[in-house]
Specification:
By secondary structure, the chain is mainly alpha-helical. The chain contains four helices and four strands, in the order H-E-E-H-H-E-E-H. The longest helix has 20 residues. It has a two-stranded antiparallel sheet with strand order 1-2. Strands 3-4 form a two-stranded antiparallel ribbon.
């Protein structure tokens, strides 16, 4: 168990307020009928089951950081959009869309050079 960083706390708060179906701004956590305890979380450990299974997978970098022991895993910025992603083997881009955009840009450069 380790203390959450400021960025991790902000990411958790953002995910809960934006994507959690059990969260209401006035009521807090609807099933528990109290303030959502994920908003005040300071340590890794027990997480809300709904948050862990439905909301946390929306941010794979945060999910990997919270589910691993020790320091947060290394991330790499995407050369196209700049978003951080978990490198997996030889993967260079965060998504298929960024990969396609980079390939199109490279192809335009090839054709520009070829045509003179």
């Amino acid at each position: 168990m380790r203390e959450l960083t400021r960025e991790e706390k902000a990411a958790i708060r953002s995910l809960v307020t934006k994507w959690c179906a059990n969260y209401d701004r006035e009521m807090g956590c609807l099933p528990l009928d109290c303030e959502c305890y994920m908003l005040g979380k300071c340590w890794t450990g027990a997480y809300c089951r709904y948050f862990r299974e439905a909301v946390l997978p929306l941010n794979p970098v945060l999910e990997a950081a919270l589910n691993t022991e020790g320091p947060a895993p290394e991330t790499r910025p995407c050369p196209v959009c700049g978003r951080p992603f978990l490198p997996d083997g030889r993967r260079r881009y965060c998504s298929e869309a960024c990969s396609k955009a980079a390939r199109q840009k490279k192809q335009r450069g090839y054709m520009r050079k070829y045509r003179g």
